[in-house]
Amino acid sequence: GKADCRETDLSNAELSSTNKAKINLRRGYLSGANLTQAVLTEAVLSRADLSDAIIISANLGQASLREAFLTGADLTGSDLRSADLVGADLTDAVLIDANLAHALLSRAMLGGSNLTGANLNKVDLADANLSGAILNDSKLIETNLSNADLSGADF
Q1: How buried is residue 19: exposed, middle or buried, by Cβ count under 10 Å (0-12/13-18/19+)?
Q2: DSSP 59
C-alpha cells in the first residue's frame, strides 16, 4: 500500500537511493533533503517544501508536485515525465538535462532556473514565469508557451 506521511518533517534528511514510489508526502517538509537517485514515481508531493533539496537523477515520473516549493532545488538529470507541477515554485532551480516530457507546468514559477539540455517536449508551460531562465539546448517540440513570461530568458 501507499505510505501516508502527510506533513512529515524530513528537512535535511538523507534519502538518497530510496524507493518511495506512491508515497504521500503532501505538505511534507523536505527542505535541503538529499533525494539523489530516489524513486518517487507517482508520489504525492503537492505543496511540499523541497526548497534547496538535492534531487539529482531521481525518478519523479507521474508524481504530483502541484504548488510544491522547489526554489533552489537541484533536479539535474531527473525524470519528471508526466509529472504535475502546476503552480509549483521552481525559482532558481537547476533542471539541467532533466526529462520533463508531457509534464504539466502551467502557472509554474521558473524564473532564473537552469533548464539547459532539458527535455520540454509536449510540456504545458502556459502562463508560466520563465523570466531569466536558461533554456540553452533544451528541447521544445510541441511545448505550450502561451502567455508564458520569457523576458530575459536565454535560448
Answers
A1: exposed
A2: B
CB of 2 closer than 8 Å to CB of 24: yes
Alpha-carbon 106 to chain mean position? 12
pLDDT tens-digit readout, 72-123: 999 999 999 999 999 999 999 999 999 999 999 999 999 999 999 999 999 9
Are 26 and 7 spatial neighbours (Cβ–Cβ below 8 Å)? yes
The vertex-143 CA angle with 137 and 148, nearest 5°, equals 95
Q: Model pTM?
A: 0.96
Cell of 118: 532539458
Q: How many CA atoms lie within 13 A of 133 on its CB side?
A: 27
**Spatial separation of the C-alpha atoms in residues 58 and 86, rounded to whole Å:** 19
